[in-house]
Amino acid sequence: MTAINDDVDIAVSFVTRLPERYRVSESAIEVPGRLTRYGLSEVVNHLLGNEKPTPFDFLIDGALLRTSLAKLALRLGKSAEATLCEYVPALQPPKAAESATCEEWISSIDGSWAPAIVTGSFDGKAYVWSPKGKLMCELDGHCERVCAVSLAPPAGDAENSCVVISASADGSVRAHELTVTGTKCDIGEVRVFKGHESTVLDVASAIGTRLFASSSVDGTARIWRLEGGELATEKPTKKRKKPSKMTGGDDDDDDDAENNGLGEELVLNGHTDQVCAVSWESSRVLWTGSYDHTIRAWDVETGVEKESNPTNSSVHCLSVAPSGNVFAFGGCDRFVNVWDPRESTSKACLKLKSHEGWVSCLRWNPSNENHIVSTSYDGSVKLWDIRGKVPLHSVTTHNGKNFAVDYHGGERLVSGGDDGNLRFWNVSSTLDD
Amino acid sequence: MPAEQTSQIGDVPLAWYRDLAHEGYNVDGRRLSKSVETDSLSNLLSNIDDRSAWRRISDALSGGHIKLSKSDVLLLQRIQAGWLPSDSLEHTWEWDSSTNTDRVASSTEPKRRFLPSQGEAKAVARLVRVLRRTFQTGQPAIEHAPHDYDIWAAPPTEQPNTLGRIRARKPSLPANELSFNPPVEYAEYAKMNISNKSASRLRQMCSYECFTQERFERCLDLYLCPRSHREKTDISPEELLPKLPMPKQLKPFPEIFTQRFLQQRETIDCFSVNCSGEWLAMCTSSGSLLIWDVHTGKNIYHFDFNTKLGSVHWHPTRTHVLVVTMGTCAVVIRSLASFDPGQLRALKSMQKSSEQPVWNCSKAVSVIQHALTVREVAWHRKGRYFATIFGERGITVHDLDFKCSQQPFAKYDSRVMSVSFHPTEPFFFICSPRQVRMYNLKTQELKRKFSNGMTNNMCMCISSSGSSLLVGERSGKTLWFDVESDGESKAIAVRGASVLSVTCHNSYPLIATAAQDGKITVFHMSEPSDSVADPMFVPVNVIQNSHLELARCLDVQFHPRQPWLFMKREPQSIDLYTQK
């Protein structure tokens, strides 16, 4: 094997999975080793004979090219003779699209439903926005700030309806049935789930089942059935007085909390500090991340803790990839940690470093399993490809802290933070079609 | 005769071979056949023919004949005549008996001539010893120095002086100028140095006048000059310092700035983090109490009291209970959600001035009225009791369950800086400027005094295990005391400015001190494996504050569960430092 430095020409054969008109001859071409992504992109565009160049990203052995070709080949231990280089369309920088203003800080966003986007706000309401950024309706009922929102499929198969689950600092979780027709929004029945003794920090609906999980400052995660809980409108007498957040001060508060576990399916006890994040791996396995520096996996059917993995710092957000194998978590250590439990321990996972504040939210691209979007208290939103170590793009979206970001479809981002602005971003790849 | 023909039977009788067919063996071991016997007639005939037959003799060993030469015959004749075999030694001399007249020689032979030599016996014994040693060790005991050596080689190193003595320097020898009659070229020099008048002859010289003086000085030099090698200790000061681990190895600890809880327009007087670490309470100069969510940095509650607030302290186990001091009152808020500052007015109006603290309670609030201004509050770890300092010297302990108070110290004898409960034992610590006293509340007696004699204490803190007491003092030292044993104190940090605040972490081995010059230092306290040794304090992070004029604001407090540090460095904000 010959040693590779920048002066060496490297034989590269360009391959792609793109349609026929983006393909070039697979025969090896000698290119200078000092070429970077831009240089290789020019080469490919020249081979394609494009008048308007299309930027491409290049992958060698599954690693994204971010330095020069020679350096990456040296790092991967490739010989100078023949290097297979796959090219994919590069992601364009996010372009600011619509913007909407909310009065209060935005704590969470769920954009997994095409007809509408739901945000949770510090004024105790969940807001439903149209994909164009118009406010459609407000879902109120909480007496404290809403910490997390999540969307769950409705009971029927109606495509234009959805269940909005909102978790609040008052210790309750509410599920609103929502039907969207055009720009109109109808609120169906509302269910209230009580049982947490303190602020509910995160909520996540399961894939494929009528379950959702919530996590709280009291150190528990709970799994609920969507049909459970109390109907907030039909049984106002049974509904407890707004749970005062202040337990512990008065003795009778504790008794109330115990009697009130209606619709509660399962309590996952084990964390020693507040549980900040929940995410479903499948309909049977739930992952939780906590302030106690652990990430735990739970068997949902039995409620037994499957494994507990230590981390270097408190975990503030956690997101399992749609494929269910890899997940990303972030928190106090400012890294975007991408961890495959089959490969390494949670302390020795891939650490992507770029944020300068606590990582507050992480989401996987629903249409591209390699892309993550992350946001942080430094006010920036960063797009990552987990095959590289440098963010693809970074935009400063808000002046202050950023609490939430989510994909709306594969090519649109929604972000929100402590300036109360809900911002939409278009992230599309560079291909025309 | 060649060797292979010679019989090699040795000195054995030839009769042994008489009856055998051979007469011996040659050098290769082959038999030698006997020579053919000739009869006496043929012998006679051959002797008649040969004139030199009389010189021929037979050799029994080889079986052949040897012919004697003329010189051999001559030699034999001389031997037979009794002469010397060789005629070259044919000299005789007379023996002179007169030479035998020496007395010594004529005396009898000494006995030692007939005895083996003892010196030789010793020398032999020595050699035997040496040889034995050589066999045992395998090394030659006597090493012969090489006869030739490399004259260009480096000179051999000087043998180390094991005794450590230095030989005195020899006095310098007199040179030309010291001559009684120095040459002309030295005369000038001689006149300058020595008051020695030159003389033309040595006998004209008077005695050397400096002799006594020089001898005396020489003696002084000899005995006053320490001529011995001293063992020099070549130690750099860095080596004497203990080996501290790198801060990297002591993670986690608060490293970088993360969040700021900013209260615009108002000065923050005091802050406190609740037991779960979820909320941060602060009271401002305008008399409002603010509760912040630590995770998001959002102000959640805002209560206006409209009077100056002293301090705020959260309950150590219940997440929603806190004590606020205002003037002469300590207010226990039992439920923040149902709390309204308007309730206080009614409770405060019920007050009556008294020496004993008075409790006025409603469902959510209790107001404890003191005789003097309440300065400080200290909670017991379990949360049932808390102590307040009022006035300069008043100390009261309140029972939250029974809603009553008691004053264990009628009047403390000096100004009370701060008080603290021991986390597990019924001990009570009172910090005064001169010393820290530990009282046993059960037996109501003074148990110990902590002081190193020179202190001017500012603040105090008990570690969560209760084994260590940390005292910050005006001189800038932070003193560590072992509560469980009567050991010496240990100064863990010395700097110029007085220490305003010292605090320990509940679960992590971390200590933070805030000094008046704006420096906040985070120490890692590593407990030794054996309980005898003192803990080691490693400074892991120093956070500098540029606003020196605001130094009075300095206060530090750890997050109860995370390795995070809250600090008040500026009048209007609380900063949160977290691990990286």
Automatic annotation (TrEMBL), chain A:
Residues 249-258 have a biased composition (Acidic residues). Its main location: nucleus. Keywords: Nucleus, Repeat, WD repeat. Residues 233-262 are annotated as: Disordered. CDD domains: WD40. One of its GO terms (cellular component) is nucleolus. It is found in: Nucleus, Nucleolus. WD repeats lie at residues 193-234, 268-308, 308-340, 352-394, 395-429. It holds the Pfam family NLE. Residues 10-71 form the NLE domain. The keyword Nucleus applies. This is G-protein beta WD-40 repeat. It comes from Ostreococcus tauri.
TrEMBL record, chain B:
Transmembrane segments: none annotated. Gene3D superfamilies: YVTN repeat-like/Quinoprotein amine dehydrogenase (2.130.10.10). SMART domains: BOP1NT (SM01035), WD40 (SM00320). GO terms for molecular function: ribonucleoprotein complex binding. GO terms for biological process: maturation of LSU-rRNA from tricistronic rRNA transcript (SSU-rRNA, 5.8S rRNA, LSU-rRNA). It is found in: Nucleus, Nucleolus. This is BOP1, N-terminal domain. The keyword Hydrolase does not apply. Its main location: nucleus. Residues 17-254 form the BOP1 N-terminal domain. One of its GO terms (cellular component) is PeBoW complex. Keywords: Nucleus, Repeat, Ribosome biogenesis, rRNA processing, WD repeat.
